[in-house]
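Recall that a protein's primary structure is simply its ordered list of amino acids. Everything else, from secondary elements to tertiary packing, is in principle encoded there. The following example makes that idea concrete.
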Amino acid sequence: MKGWKKWMAVGCSHGDQIDPEARKAVLMFKERWKPDTTIHLGDFLDLAAFRSGAISDPNSSDRAASISDDLSAGIDFLHELRPQHILYGNHEARLYKLASSPNALAAHAATLTIQAIEKTAKELKARLYPYHIRSYYELGGCKFIHGSMFNVQAIRDHAEALGGSSVVMAHLHRVGLERARNIEGTSGYCTGMLARFDMDYASTRRATLAWSQGFAYGYYKDNSININLCERRQNNPWLLPL
């Protein structure tokens, strides 16, 4: 393995919705693995109170979700994980929509939250990546993204859209591997989530039955990368690779 370095990537920790067992497992693995590069693939905050439904519906229960608790938990986890690369997910993207809102209170809260994230990234000396289909971090020829499509074949669809040797994403809350139907034979990987399985907003959605927690890790060198997935299904124990 001379000349090869280590990496790991996680996503969808969702602020104060992070699962304590998942948090412990990921941090334990990082301590043992000692990666040279660590990536958070986005949705490190949940921001339920910033949902469009919560903003428009005075009876939405999400209006009572604590922004302070969510922000503190999300930032605490980033400080523990110490990623060099932090991608915004669709949950963080809500902040930029609301920062220019005519609702002065919502705009002010969104702006303060953005400033707290940027301050954290600066303290960690980490690079922030906007939530955009053309925004990704590339390592060893692999594109790391949060993800924007959400369907049964979303891993494959992202791999086909971005191309290259491989794509690693989060967003879908399930660990998975699919091959693209392109000339490059791009491999698409999804890291799953670190959030709780019983998050309220998805309690009646059938898709949650496929949810799984996990992370990705491996080696990289120049334009080559090795990708492995670690998965934990609901009601099963964490079995770490090391």
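Helices lie at 20-33, 52-56, 67-81, 90-98, 104-124, 154-162. Residues 104-124 form the longest helix (21 residues).
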